[in-house]
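Researcher: I'm preparing a figure for a lab meeting and need a structural model of a single chain. I don't have an experimental structure, so a prediction will have to do for now. The sequence is pasted below. Please return the structure as tokens so I can convert it later.
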Amino acid sequence: MTCKMYVSNRWRRMTIAAMLGLCSLCAAAGPSPQSKPPQSKPEDNTRRVWNKMFREARGSAGPRRPRGTAVKKGLIGVTIWRLRDDQERPTAERATADTLFTEGERLRLSIEVPRSGDGHLYVIDREVYADGSTSDPYLIFPSQTTPEGGNVVTAGKPIFVPARGDEFPYFTLERARKDLLREELTIIVSPTPLKLPLGTPDRPVRLEKAKMAQWESQWGGRAELREEQDGAGKQWTAAEREADKGERRLIQGDPLPQTIYHIKAAPGAPVMLRVPLRIAP
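Model: Understood. Here is the structure written out token by token.
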């Protein structure tokens, strides 16, 4: 089965048979530690510990972070949002990492990293086919329209992809090739900016497969995930809508990401996470 995902009427084909319904966490650029998706488990002590880390990071974020406040390396929070109702006043509701989406659904992704301005976020998309091969990778975030510093991660500042200011601030899932297995989004949080060319929301920049394979070899790490218990289907709150608009940051008492991942990465190295999007047959 195949699918494609559009950011605009001119957006390139994208497939979906494994996540932005996001998800399970496979690729074809050779075996890697994340070749198998991590298994989701009910909320447990691990998720409660990660929740505590997110809240503490939100409480200490800002220009005057207390001395000795630890930066939570290796944690990335991801929420997949299903847009409902009309496009002028959409209602967004949460989906889990293993959700199967239907063709025509509109989705957004929000990413939060419990750090304090010491990471740069990049999102790359590619298709994964039944024989294990992949399409060329495309850098879909940031783009030429991203404000300066708009891809710098900070605790309490969820970054939405596609961005609210884009002409089409959502992905529309549509089928493409029959041998498509999934749409795979690669999230990279780098301590220093990556020197990459930037495209536009409707014309993302194609990256070299060899470069992606090199990054996966250097930065790929095993990932473990935990879902928010009973979070699926919950609508976004006023706080999350305001954070999307850039009117405020999330604080300790605000909702946490639906899915939190822990990635084992080398100290000082970028953190890389794969998030597949699946579409129902």
